[in-house]
Amino acid sequence: MRLLFVSCVAFILIVVCLFAFPKAVALVEPVVLVPSRSIKTRVLPVISTNTSFPLLSAQSALAIDEETGVSLYEKNSKDPFLPASTTKIITALTAMDFYPQDLILEVGKLRVEGQKMGLLEGEEIRVIDLLYGLLVFSANDAAEVLAANFPGGRDLFITSMNLKAQKLGLKDSYFTNPTGLDGNSQVTTAQDLAQASQIAMKNSVFSKIVGTKAITVKSVDGKFSHKLTNINRLIGEVEGVLGVKTGWTEDARENLVTYIEKDGRKIMIVVLGSQDRFGETRKLIDWIYLNYEWKEVPISQNYSP
Fold first, then answer.
1. Which residue of the set 75, 88, 164, 245 is catalytic?
2. Would you call 88 a catalytic residue per the annotation?
3. Which of 70, 151, 232, 279 maximizes the CB count within 10 A of its CB?
4. Whole-angstrom Cα distance, residue 59 to residue 33?
5. Could you report the per-residue pLDDT of 166-213, keeping only the tens digit for each?
6. pLDDT average, residue stretch 82-110
7. How far apart are CA 258 and CA 269, in angstroms?
8. Active-site option among 60, 75, 77, 85
9. What separation, in Å, do the N-terminal and C-terminal C-alpha atoms of the chain show?
10. Is CATH 3.40.710.10 what the domain over 41-298 is classified as, yes or no?
11. Residue 274 is among the residues annotated as catalytic for this protein
């Protein structure tokens, strides 16, 4: 009887343990090893501490680091100002959208004010040579010939300029002529010009033309020759400057859009309404490269330049 009793007790203990053990295991939370989140970093321009910002006579200015989109210097960059001949950036892009470069256009009767390359009525000249006149010498007669030969004429060309501006995302620019002469409601901003120029400089033909120091172009028959010297004095004088476009009228004062590649950095600079566009652009270039370092810094997931 004792043996039977002990056997029964042992059996009961074994059964209890078998049922209890899984429950005991279930009460223990599993340990899951979660890898720590790596901190996201990005190379960004970081300004030196205790630096002073340069004072400019320009009514508006903007300097942008192209790779990151970070603004390096800004003054009234979204306020509207007279574009003067920086208008020709849009004139060129509009013409390049429509005309083949080797297309021959005939010069009609022109009444042109301001800067001219000396086109003569009846002269036949290729579009590519008109683009050199437009962007290197800032020739108003080249702009008017490109506009006059457009299907639908000059007015439709100007409409196409504004459609091009909209397509490029230029929210605060409006054009009433292809030359940049002051006109009713013809305005732009430093922000818009920087954006348009960033896109334009990705076009190999445009970037080659605006980086040309001097060139001579001729009519198709070779009878007429036009020597063109780039109005942008910084090209060939300041290391890394590759364009883009000058502008001046009495009311607009001095405008300049500048693209520079230096020390592995690409920067777009716009000054509008300046009393010394070349000197102030030089000042901005020197200040940027002296006071900014490009460093790997942690960024949040919601980072936006």
1. 88
2. yes
3. 232
4. 58
5. 999 999 999 999 999 987 789 999 999 999 999 999 999 999 999 999
6. 97
7. 5
8. 85
9. 89
10. yes
11. no
Question: Which has more confidence, 3 or 191?
Answer: 191
| Cα separation, 227 vs 86, whole angstroms | 21
Task: Name the token pair of 276.
Answer: 């010394």
Model confidence pTM above 0.90? no
pLDDT attached to residue 49: 83
Pick left, alpha or beta for residue 177 (phi over 0 → left; psi -120 to 50 → alpha; otherwise beta). Answer: beta
Contact 112, 141 (CB under 8 A): yes
- Is residue 52 part of the annotated active site? The answer reads no
pLDDT tens digits, one per residue of 211-259: 999 999 999 999 999 999 999 999 999 999 999 999 999 999 999 999 9
The CB-side HSE value for 8 (13 A sphere, CA atoms) comes to: 5
Give the residue extent of every domain in the chain. Answer: 41-298
60, 77, 138, 160: the catalytic one is 138
